[in-house]
Amino acid sequence: MELKWLKTFVTVYECGNFRVAAERLFISQPSISVHIKLLEEDLKVPLFVRNHTQIQLTREGEYFYPLAKEILEKVNENKQLLLSYSNSEKIQFSIALSPILVTTKLPEILYEFMSHFTNYELDIVIEESHDIDVLIRLQTVHLAIGTSNSKFKDIHAEKLQTSPLVLAYPHSFKDEDKKISIILSELLNDYPMFIGYSEEIEPLLTLIDQEHKIPRKNTIKESNIVKQLVIGGLGIGFLPKFLIEEELAEGRLKILELKPHMHLFPVEIYMKHVRESEQLLPLLNFIRKKYNSNF
Predict the structure, then answer these.
(1) Distance (Å, rounded) from C-alpha 20 to C-alpha 184?
(2) CB under 8 Å to 182, separation ≥6 — which residues?
């Protein structure tokens, strides 16, 4: 079995057409047919049913597609590992993270990358999202991950995740068999609303204030502190759902999803850099893969 046969099969599967697959791979259409035929002979199963210009995947073809794609991805990953290993010098990158991302799975992803790519050293610094673009343009950091897009054309910004804002409140609050409007009213009466830690929550607070009036507001400058205060039963606050996934799974707090308001002001995570160098590419691909598979 040759890798080019697998690549041809995956491309035909994703394109749904031999001609389009040939154009994408920059080879002739007869070569596509030959690759598929050789692969089928090697596997001893039919992968496609051909009917004039139409093709249809067999049951075996459907089963084989994710396996073939995994093989190609693993080969590519191992090639990158070999390339990294062949360069005995340490590759050093400075990465800036927004404070809100410190308690998410992102630091774990970065350290997992270093365990696979042992000749990479990542210096992780914490910077506010509005300061990150300047650091990238000055080349003080090579890569930045934060909650804001970039206004500069020379900075490439790639969206990794979009998360709704949800109202987080203490797990001890009794909310059984109550309507959302009643829960919200009681929460506002029983707890202070934390504000001042995120620009994204301001328009949402305005909407809530117009409908229910927020009697007590406490200013906190850090999202992660707000999370801990809510867990401790000391107040309520709007937080991006990605920030509290672990606490929700463990039952340490509850959330109120105020549809449709929560979808009006999502929090987005962006990965930003000036140029995609050959040395930076393994890190970018690793982060992309982790976000695509986990979120």
Answers:
(1) 54
(2) none
